[in-house]
Fold each of these.
Amino acid sequence: MIYCCIMLTPEESDFDEKGEIRTSSILHFYELAAGVHVEALGIGPDDFIKDDRMWVLSKVKVQFMTDESGASRKQAFAPGKSIKVVTYPVNQKSVTFRREFCILPGDSDYPINPADGAWVDGVQRPDKEEALLIGASQWTIVNFKTRRVERTNLDFPTTEGKHELIEGKFEKIRGRDLEYAGDFVVPEADIDRNKHMNNSHYIEIAQIVTGRRVSEYAYVNFAKETLLGDRILMYREEQEDGLYVEGRLGSEDGSIVFQSIIR
């Protein structure tokens, strides 16, 4: 029950005008796999809603892998070409849950899990050398009514030992000498079942507003939810680790909505 793997087939809409896979689609694929996993464990959204709780993605990293020649495997994604999305939890604290994920070629031997409603025994961590992309994420449980993070004694299965695909903690990132890059108004199409903008879309608008694409790596820290019609002011700064992009609410308080690194 630790390792979950689903098969998906990207569509034309998952690719941008240059034919490259959208980072928001990558995160959407991952959220689908994580959803299948927690539903099978009996702690999915429908199980939580009766207690006014919901899962919220708070931080995420993605890294495209390279082949032996050093070429990015981002180009391996294509419309109609199946992929396997694998995810599993690696540790749990009182308010945060870390979960790894990776995307494998559709013809990988890695087993679909669960298969035909049953969990496959003996499934191991996927081989990152085979992966097209690897990722790490941090989730919290939020009260749907109060919008506050809740502590929990949830008995959540995790892997034993060191199984991180992207090693290390979720480091703090921040801007220092920011310049205004543009703004974005949250449309209805980006609103999810929790009535706020889906977190997978923030990295997409960061790329649209700045004109910088994720070619190798992206890290996003989600700080505050936004609602339909909210205006997000975008700021940018070139840093050693890549392009730092920050979104703030266009209201009087100017709260930080998200922080990200793109390269």
Amino acid sequence: MQVHFYNFAVLNPLLMLKKIYAPIIVVLFSSCLFNKHQDKRPVIILDPLDTSTNPKYKDYNKAISLDSNNATAYINRASEKYGDTDYAGALTDYNKAIHINPKNLYALNGRGMVYYRIKKYEEALRDLNSALEVDTKLAQAFFYRGKTKVELDDYDGALNDVASAIQLGYDKAWAFDEKGYLERHLHKYKEAITDCSVALYMDSTSESAMVNRAGSKYMLEDYQGALEDYNKCISMYPKDADAYTGRGMTLSKLGKGKD
């Protein structure tokens, strides 16, 4: 473990920022800015991506040190890294788990999700297909395969996968949101309104669900309904360019854009 001591009186602010974000434990200690009764316990700043210092990796690290073929430990550590957006670290651990067991469902699904996040869509599709060959009812794999297919311009396939995910119990607000987006893209406006409404019932702050429901209402000539959704979106997200564009078009249809 590398430990550094600094005096606040002479510490350059830019140097301090650099040290805070360095992948080491930084101990900040001052003896001159406070009186002699100050609390001199060190302040420890951990880098969440450093598996050697982050305590939530401790047990997985120990398990792997005792058994280098412990696929479960690699998978769980990868999941933690994924949550910390350490996609490179997660990919390394998932690779190790798959090397140990090429048919491990959770490793294949997890690596597919990582590949999606780092925009390697062909690799993501391959792993998610493999995961679904092992378990044809893995809802999360269907959902992420659907999102991957969107990036590969397979919107029909994407809609089928997202719908399957929901049917299998992946009833998350963002799943209905994604389904509504795909239905709007495929000109299924009534279905899009229904699914966006479900998403908004589950999460009333969903920005994309508001815009996609508004856009679908606009295409069905429900201009007043579209205006209400665009107004709500803009009140919550004043930097949403799509909402302003849609509202402008809607106001024109209502004859209110010629002031």
Amino acid sequence: MIGCPVATLSQPSGGESPQQQEATTFRSCPLCGCNNQLAAPLATSLPPWELKECPACQMVYLENALPYQALEESFAWQHQLDQHRIDQQQATPQSYHLRRTWRRWRKQIFRRKQVADWAEQFFPSGKVLDLGCGRGKNLHKLPGSHIPFGIEIGKDAAQQANQDAAQRGGKVWQGDCLSILKRLPEGSFQGVLLQSYLEHEIHPLPVLLEIARVLSYGGGVVIKVPNYDCWSRKIRGQKWCGFRFPDHVNYFTPTTLSEMVQRAGLSQVRFGWVDHLPTSDTMWLAARKMAVSISDQESVNSALESINFSTC
């Protein structure tokens, strides 16, 4: 069964690290739903965190993940990201600076991988929703033809992002993305951005299904995730920058990302070889909701404006 609910595991006993002391949730394969509890963890697992590769669909994922509640404060993604950068810099300073230099150079050469460029190309004018928007960095980059909205699980980051979004007529809701998406009106957004978000989401397919629902017909989705199939991961093994325990819970290859997007009913419109080069640690995909709209946009806008749940 696809999208099986997670089951809460028992709380670990004393003598463990703070991360180990958090209650975790058991996950079946997030792509096909297979229960792989009896399968051996991958060698790149970092105990107590267990990476599994589903034998049915080859999806790689963290089987014992943290629940949403832990991600709101104790393991807010922004704090985890900042600490991850510090750890990387201290562990391999030369390699860290070399990768940073390469990324800056690559961004200058391949300007297509800029949020504003992708939004302008794949999002019609109107409301754009950024999932896992953090402090609103990407909302600032949206073209003037788009109204910024966001969902962020971290309380402090959501409050800051909401203040900025409100200046352009938008808002940011605080909470987990799946719960809030379920409460948004159908067809209420012209674009949805998932930059460095889907690898953190314990329910990625249900989230994509909700995205397909809240998108207006012709609306676009832009996704950026780490590329598990990249050469760097194969060469560096456990030292690959894409391994982040416990906040990265999904590890996509081009095949598994494309399959999940299609299962959500979205039509892939850009995912060429240049968007998932094996030399790159990340990959980008654009999709659309392809159909003829029968929604009354005025009623959708009115419903959206009336929603005030969990607004910071």
